[in-house]
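Bump. Still looking for UDP-N-acetylmuramoyl-L-alanyl-D-glutamate--2,6-diaminopimelate ligase structure tokens.
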Amino acid sequence: MTFSGPYSPPTLHDLADLTGGHVAPRHAHVSVHSASISSQDVAADGLFCAVPGTRTHGATFASSSGAAAVLTDARGAELLEEDGCELPVLIVDDVRKWMGPVAAEVYGHPAKGLTIVGITGTSGKTTTSYLVERALMSEHHVGIIGTTGTRINGRPVETKLTTPEAPTMQALLRQMRDESVTHVVMEVSSHALQLGRVRGIPFDVVAFTNLSQDHLDFHPTMEDYFQAKRTLFVDPDGVYGANAAPRSAAKRKAVVCIEDVWGQRLASETEGAATVSATPGPGAATWNVEAVQVSQSGRQDITLTHRAGADGASETINYSIGLAGSFNVANSVIAIACATAAGVAPRRAAAALADVQVPGRMQAVDAGQDFLAVVDYAHKPGAVAAVLGTLSDYLPSPTGRIAIVLGAGGNRDRDKRPKMGHYAAAMADAVFITDDNPRDEDPQAIRAEVLAGAREAALGPGVQKKEGQHGPASHVEEIADRARAIAAAVAWAQPGDAIVIAGKGHEKGQEIRGVMHEFDDQAQLTSALNQRMAHNSTNNQEKQP
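Sorry for the wait, here they are.
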């Protein structure tokens, strides 16, 4: 790690002053140059942040970490003593509470020289982040941190979480500063907010996309889920850390999409929030979509009104995006609002979005077939419904049908599984239920829960659908092997139909029993399409006289 200006690494005494923690006098002079939550990644001159886990306390790995010192709580200190570990220890009341501010101190408060945009919500974070990145790149050097990884001035940097742990986050911000980045776009998950991963980061602009059912394995209720998101807007000390010198809440700008009741509530509770309404027609939002024209290819021409200033003066902005779906209209407006709040002129921000594509988000795969094939990350009930609704608008043929391949992730919210199956069977003509990332759960049990919802909504025996009607599904099939399920959907499709492979999007692996197996939905879909095209070509040649 390099530093672009004068820098003096903090001592444990400095960090004890910051946190109100305790360090033995004989170790107070020890300085640390980096920080890590992983005992395998911590440097010899680094601080190992030993947090309590669900099964094991991180302090049990301290002796073998090779770190210069350990940040832990009282229980961790007891374990270190029992283990005979003689590493210098800084003891705090709550490791997660202080890990961000401590890491910020260790890395020289890199956020102080950056304009930081944080985006939260159930769906749309990744797409909106990509759009904000592109809008900011029209004038600035930009870094982005999110689900599909980290980029610094367009160059990929590998990370593992949507919002990395606090020490990794601060190290990334330091690296971005050293590589001349001026603006950072960051996806902020509810897990990150609840677990303190963004404490110590003073956001300049914060945005809310929407809220729907997800992560109820982590949050006991939707209210708890909402409150986690809300802290980004109304509880700066809770997010940033009372001693981390956050930027004034009055200077922080908020953008809130009010397309759902949660957004409307958040806007009413956030002073000075710029509001976004993406439903075409007149409206009183700060940013209001007046009209949308959609082409058969999925490109959308949008007329947007921006009401700026207390006098109610407005400007009209016309722009185009190559992303299909009404939800992407909302994502694009949120992005323009964020870029504007960060200092980019609205028209310039809007013009920059024309050709943005996002991996695994309504991503069309074309192998020359005569039907539409799409990969999408939809892995929650609302997202499944939104994707299927969008596909019905872009069918190549007015009599075309829709099929969906989907599963549900293991070790996650079980309640959403039958709902995903229900939406799939209610809105598609064929449903192929398969494995997603089973993780540590029984894959068959997961499929059964999705299947139960699908069968409940599927077309009953002997019932006929009207021509052009999509859903209820007349075909529901369970195929455990995901590659085979994708191939089955491709085989099912006829000219003018559409199929969507849902749930994994950009992911390059499938997690089963703790092992990550190589798997790419786009690659598997491409392979299945190529095989079908080759088979059709062979058949056509055989039919020729």
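The chain has three domains: 12-106, 110-351, 363-537.

Edit: fixed formatting.
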